[in-house]
Design goal:
Length: 186
């Protein structure tokens, strides 16, 4: 009986490790205006993190609508100051005419500069859905500023992206004496 209970508990705890993480929407007044302009029949139903590591993440976006014409989705990650980091390029995908989901794969690309932190933090995932024939569809620089003419959806996605070690990287180390060294006084 105890072996069955332990097996059940282990099974439940391991299933949580491999489960997809659903992202919660962020209420943003500017995103609401763009969504109204985009139409109520076209919406994103669910956003989940399919897989992630310290330097990559794959996000699955399930949607309804967007079948009346050709659309593109632009996915981008934002820092806490609402900027797209240059290390994480925005991803652009075509919305399939006969499907209801797309995937964004983000990969951390370390720049040739001195980093002062071991991690780059992002806090939100932004998705802009726009008509593929729109003149703004080809703009891909700072997508956090380009939400006119499309529907914008923002989701909470706090993530730390590991910065690989470089010769110019500054790492702060807190030294803690152990054993008999902890009792030495000057």
């Amino acid at each position: 009986m105890n072996k069955i209970m332990i097996g059940l508990l282990l099974g439940l705890s391991f299933s949580g490790l491999f489960a997809q993480k659903e992202l919660a929407p962020v209420s943003d007044p500017s995103a609401g205006l763009a969504s109204i302009l985009g139409g109520a029949e076209n919406t994103i139903k669910k956003v989940t993190v399919s897989s992630e590591s310290e330097q990559a993440a794959t996000v699955t976006v399930e949607f309804a609508g967007f079948q009346d014409k050709k659309y593109i989705m632009k996915g981008f990650l934002l820092t806490n100051i609402k900027k797209v980091p240059v290390e994480l390029e925005p991803v652009v995908v075509d919305v399939p005419s006969s499907g209801n989901s797309v995937e964004f794969t983000f990969k951390f690309k370390q720049q040739q500069k001195a980093y002062t932190q071991q991690y780059l933090e992002t806090v939100q995932l932004g998705i802009v859905v726009m008509d593929a024939s729109s003149p703004l569809a080809s703009v891909s620089t700072n997508l956090s500023d380009v939400n006119i003419g499309g529907s914008t959806f923002n989701y909470q996605y706090p993530k730390k992206w590991r910065i690989g070690g470089t010769a110019s990287m500054v790492v702060q180390v807190k030294l803690t004496p152990i054993g008999s060294a902890a009792s030495i006084r000057q």
